[in-house]
Design brief:
Layout (H helix, E strand, L loop, with lengths): L4 H13 L11 E9 L4 E7 L7 E6 L5 E6 L6 E6 L4 E4 L6 E7 L5 E7 L15 E5 L4 E4 L6 E6 L4 E6 L10 E6 L5 E5 L2 E7 L6 E5 L7 E5 L7 E5 L16 E3 L5 E5 L2 E5 L8 E5 L5 E8 L5 E8 L2
Antiparallel strand pairs: 1-2, 1-24, 3-4, 4-5, 5-6, 7-8, 8-9, 9-10, 11-12, 12-13, 13-14, 15-16, 16-17, 17-18, 19-20, 20-21, 21-22, 23-24
Length: 314
């Protein structure tokens, strides 16, 4: 099967952004920021920081909470942009013909990590020759691979040594993806699940990875596991799909709050699990003015701001 370069880029955009269409035209995905008040169960001051049509997604907050980084295909390839919350200004961090995804600021503020695609494979669009996950300085230049591992599609930092990674299958259409913990020091990989969702995170205590386990197709769960754990600890079941809901519309992305609770989204509504064993996700607040469904979401380090990627209705 022959794929055009545009189709390859779109395929990876769909995989990484969680969009549902397989058409050649890139999906219209915007990034919004808002204020979050969990106690009052409100979301306010919602604003689109990527006006106009295009594919902008995977937002993440800087450690000081003053800026949001995200990836956008506005120049023909996916580059990383930084939005200053106080000034309301956007800066292009990178300017490359390569495709960059999942920009994640480093805890020490020195730069960020990102998925780098130089030569995309024809099945999933992931990098097929070089290590996937790279360190970047704020000058936008790639410094070095985080780990010498290929085919990483998503990642989350657990500690400076441990990275949680979604490994994309190397056999077309088999979809035997895995989620693992990788030690940068030893190279050891610890299996989290061989049926992972796309969302990865870290527990509030900073010791274990959070991930979606889709082993039971009818009952997805969010689980936690550290490198020294014998098995994952199931925390909570993700929201069940509504009657008639397409699989692509099912809640699949979460964000961890500083108090140990978790957020997910369904459409334009936020759901929250309070962190208590035996609990479930409950409605928290509707997010007004989005014009579409929330895909990925991020929470600022202080838990007071949200960043959302939104798949807008055509």
């Amino acid at each position: 099967m022959t794929f055009s370069v545009r189709r390859l880029a779109t395929a990876l955009t769909l995989l990484l952004a969680g969009a549902a269409s397989a058409a050649d035209a890139p999906p219209d995905i915007a990034v919004f920021v808002a204020l979050l008040d969990v106690k009052a169960a409100t979301v306010s001051e919602v604003r689109d920081i990527t006006p106009g049509k295009g594919s902008s997604y995977q937002p993440a907050f800087t450690p000081d909470g003053k800026a949001v980084v995200y990836t956008s295909g506005r120049t023909g390839s996916n580059n990383v942009y930084r939005y200053d919350l106080a000034q309301g200004t956007t800066t292009a961090v990178t300017a490359t013909t390569e495709n960059l995804y999942s920009p994640t600021p480093l805890a020490d503020g020195s730069g960020f990590s990102a998925i780098r695609v130089v030569t995309a494979d024809p099945a999933y669009g992931i990098e097929m020759n070089l290590p996937s996950l790279w360190l970047f300085g704020w000058d936008g230049k790639p410094a070095a691979p985080v780990v010498p591992v290929k085919r990483i599609g998503y990642h989350a930092w657990i500690t400076p040594d441990l990275v949680a990674a979604f490994l994309v299958d190397d056999v077309p259409d088999r979809n035997a993806h895995r989620a693992v913990l990788i030690s940068r020091t030893t190279g050891r990989q610890t299996l989290l699940t061989d049926k992972p969702g796309r969302s990865l995170g870290r527990t509030a205590d900073g010791k274990r990875a959070l991930f979606v386990d889709q082993t039971d197709p009818a009952h997805w769960v969010i689980a936690a596991m550290g490198a020294g754990d014998a098995k994952p600890q199931v925390l909570v079941e993700t929201p069940a799909p509504a009657a008639g809901e397409k699989e692509s519309q099912r809640s699949a992305y979460f964000a961890a709050l500083p108090d140990g609770s978790l957020l997910m989204a369904h459409g334009a509504r936020l759901l929250r699990w309070d962190g208590q064993p035996g609990g479930s996700f409950r409605p928290l607040a509707d997010v007004p003015g989005l014009g579409g469904a929330i895909r990925t979401l991020a929470v600022s380090p202080d838990g007071k701001r949200l960043a959302l990627s939104v798949l807008r209705q055509p």
